[in-house]
UniProtKB/TrEMBL annotation:
<comment type="similarity">
    <text>Belongs to the avfA family.</text>
</comment>
<feature type="domain" description="NAD(P)-binding">
    <location>
        <begin position="9"/>
        <end position="218"/>
    </location>
</feature>
<dbReference type="InterPro" id="IPR016040">
    <property type="entry name" value="NAD(P)-bd_dom"/>
</dbReference>
<dbReference type="InterPro" id="IPR051606">
    <property type="entry name" value="Polyketide_Oxido-like"/>
</dbReference>
<dbReference type="InterPro" id="IPR036291">
    <property type="entry name" value="NAD(P)-bd_dom_sf"/>
</dbReference>
<dbReference type="GO" id="GO:0004074">
    <property type="term" value="F:biliverdin reductase [NAD(P)H] activity"/>
</dbReference>
<dbReference type="Pfam" id="PF13460">
    <property type="entry name" value="NAD_binding_10"/>
</dbReference>
<dbReference type="GO" id="GO:0042602">
    <property type="term" value="F:riboflavin reductase (NADPH) activity"/>
</dbReference>
<protein>
    <recommendedName>
        <fullName>NAD(P)-binding domain-containing protein</fullName>
    </recommendedName>
</protein>
Amino acid sequence: MPSHIAFLGASTGVGLSALKHSLEAGRQCVALCREPKKLDSLEAHNLKIVKGNAHDLDVVSQLIVAPDGTFVDEIITTIGGKFSTSKMGIDQPKVCEIGMDTLITAIASLRKKGVSGAPHIIACSSTGVSKFGRDLPLLMVPLYLALKGPHADKVKMEEKLVASGEKFTVIRASLLTDGESEKAIRVGIEDPKTGFESKAIGYTISREDAGKWVARNLVQDMDAAYLNKMVVITY
């Protein structure tokens, strides 16, 4: 059972929810945050907050090593860009790709220095990026076509993670909304080499419920069916 978890991008949204529920489950968590004050409300004894950027190799390298000198058990990355009206797009077009490059480089470098372990990397992506077919409602296709730039970044992130050879789970959440609930969440699984194993096509899922699902199914009680797979979660 994982005991040490590193979070990248947990100051808001899915990442914040996953962090909150992981802390409640008693896991030892360390979170990288550009503005640590955003996590002040958590005030958990099992949380360490590190100020920094997910593109900073030195900071990420420190983040993913547990107190005993081995790799943390899990790394959850939910980093992403913000919409810029001046650019009419994401402020950092390659934020996810660069973030994954940094993480994989950090792991490889630390291994050469003798750090042991095999962290399970959980990366938050999006529906609408599968190369095996449609995984979202037909009515939502036009909207997702307008998100071509951010989705291209997610694809690059996924490709780099799969190619790394590290243990992984990619979470492809449907359109994100707000509000925690106990709604039933449907799950679809895709193998990166062979395609769909099961489908779950839906319109939305809230950030809070998506993060709670990650904490419950990939942290508290890891299901082997999700290992090295792309996992769609939706209502």
